[in-house]
Structure formats: C-alpha cells, structure tokens
TrEMBL record:
It comes from the Bacteria. The keyword Translocase applies. This is Phosphonate transport system ATP-binding protein. The lineage of its organism: Bacteria, Pseudomonadati, Pseudomonadota, Alphaproteobacteria, Hyphomicrobiales. Gene3D superfamilies: P-loop containing nucleotide triphosphate hydrolases (3.40.50.300). GO terms for cellular component: membrane. It comes from Rhodopseudomonas rhenobacensis.
C-alpha cells in the first residue's frame, strides 16, 4: 500500500533529519513510529505527503509514485492521505460540523472554497462520522469550546471524511490525559481496521504505543533501528532507540531484572 524507499531529507541548514528510511505499510495496518525528540518522526510523515520535500528516495502509494508529482496531480493524490496533527489544527471560529466538512476540501485552501456548496452526501457522511467518533451531540459547538480529546476526535472525523487510504498521525495524544489518550488510540485503531486504512502514528508514549499498535518502528537520528512487533521492545531495543537509560524502572517501579523481557509490556500486564 505505502512503500517508502531509501528516503533522505537534509534541511537547508545542513541538518540530516532522515538518512535512508525504507518502510512498507499494508492496507489495514497501523504502525507506531517512536523515537526521541529530533529523531525525524515528523519529518518522515511530512515527507510522505510532500508537505516537506524529500532530498532523495521514493514514496509510493499503491501504484502511484508521489515523489516526482507536482501541481494538480500531487493535489489529487494527496486526497488519498488523511493527516491528523498533534496541535489539532481546527478552525477555531467554526463549528464541529463545519470543521469536519472542511476536510472535504482537501488541500485546496479552505477560504477559497468556503462559498462552494457542500453536497448533501458530504453532510450525511459528516453526520455519520460525528456519530462514530462520539460527537453527534456537539455538532454545532465551536471548535474553541471543545476539550482536547473532543478536538482530536474532530480532527479524526475531518481526516476521514475525504475517505483516505492512508492516515498520517503526528502525536495524537500529546496533550491528553491517560484515559482520553487511550480512547483516542482505540478509536483510531478501530477506524483503521473498519476502513482498511494504512496508518503511521508518531507517538512518544511507548506504553500506549505497545497497548494499541502491534507493529513498532523505532527511529533514531534519521535511521530505522527497530521494525518489529510491539512485544519485541526489550530494554536493549529501547536503548537502541532512545539511548542508555534504566528501562527496568518503567516496569511498575520494580526495577532490577534485565532478562530481556519486554519490560513495558510487563508493566501493562501488571496494571490489568
Ligand atoms: N524546518 C527545519 N529546518 C531545519 N531543521 C529542521 C527543520 N525541521 C526539523 N528539523 C530538524 O530535523 C530533525 C528532525 O526533526 P523532527 O521534527 O522530524 O523530529 P521529531 O522526531 O518529530 O521530534 P519530536 O519528537 O520532538 O516531534 C531535528 O534535528 C530538527 O531540529
Ligand atoms: Mg515531531
């Protein structure tokens, strides 16, 4: 579905943010992209839809190579990709419903298209999506009157209304409390499975990533250092991704053992 091959990005100031990343994501597969601050996670997902121009390498979505497209062709293909940002970039003065419908306009520029009439089927679909994400009772509320979790759900509905094949999600739970974070992750993973979407989710919280995302890709300084099951995140692997740290301290505060067990998973099980 999505194939990233030998992708590099060096910013104008000489900062090499990606140093040859290769990655495949299948339809219906949702992967967690983890790594320390500055590892290149945001750069990677923005290179996929060309919000950032890669320096070299290829990005293919289905049969289409996105790198190499420009103008109208690029805009058309971008509609196949839904973006959910950590700062839940909603239009504050508009209602929940209007924000979701704005997703229908894709990347064409909201204000340019504001006077275009929305098709009845778009409105129907927006209602169905708001029902699905649990916001049907807030349809007329302004975006600036919503909680963080509600805003993220609007962001999800807005990304899904364009019926994308791929979702790029940048830290969806960065400023949410633990319970809201889990419900947003649950919603995201369910929607990907229901709609056979491929998704890449940048996420800082390793425990949360392990709880919801079966496949984890670990990025360190622009290089993929781990690509495997969430259950394989041992202390050794976490060190290769994040650097030296006493990872046993994350295991329910017990500390001590270093027998290669996936420690964070051990903690999740202990909590249940
Ligand atoms: N516009 C830019 N110009 C120059 N360097 C940049 C730019 N954007 C990012 N970088 C650099 O590229 C590297 C990767 O940044 P990126 O934002 O992709 O990291 P990240 O993994 O998303 O980090 P975080 O977890 O903090 O969001 C960093 O060293 C950063 O300083
Ligand atoms: Mg980032």
């Amino acid at each position: 579905m999505l194939r990233i091959q030998a992708l590099t990005k060096t910013y104008k100031n000489g900062e090499a943010a990606l140093k040859g990343v290769s990655l495949g994501v299948e339809a219906g597969e949702i992967i967690g992209l983890i790594g320390p601050s500055g590892a290149g996670k945001s750069t990677l997902i923005r290179c996929v839809n060309r919000l950032i121009e890669p320096s070299s390498g290829r990005v293919q979505l289905g049969e289409v190579e996105l790198t190499g497209l420009s103008g109208g062709a690029l805009r058309r293909e971008r509609r196949r990709i839904g973006m959910i940002f950590q700062e839940y970039a909603l239009i504050e003065r508009l209602t929940v419903m209007e924000n979701v419908l704005a997703g229908r306009l894709g990347y064409t520029g909201f204000w340019n298209s504001w006077f275009r009439r929305f098709a009845a089927q778009d409105v129907q679909r927006a209602i169905a999506l708001l029902e699905r994400v649990g916001l049907i009772d807030h349809i007329d509320k302004r975006a600036d009157a919503l909680s963080g979790g509600q805003r993220q759900r609007v962001g999800i509905a807005r990304a899904l209304i364009q019926q994308p094949e791929l979702l790029l999600v940048d830290e969806p739970t960065a400023s949410l409390d633990p319970k809201t974070s889990r419900s947003v992750m649950r919603l995201l993973t369910e929607l990907c499975i229901e709609n056979r979407l491929a998704a890449i989710v940048n996420i800082h919280d390793v425990v949360l990533a392990q709880a919801f995302l079966p496949r984890i890709v670990g990025l360190n300084a622009g290089i993929v250092v781990y690509d495997g099951p969430a259950s394989g995140l041992t202390a050794e692997v976490l060190t290769s991704i994040y650097g030296e740290e006493d990872w046993t301290r994350t295991a329910a505060g017990e500390g001590g053992s270093d027998d290669g067990e996936p420690l964070v998973i051990a903690r999740m099980e202990a909590e249940q």
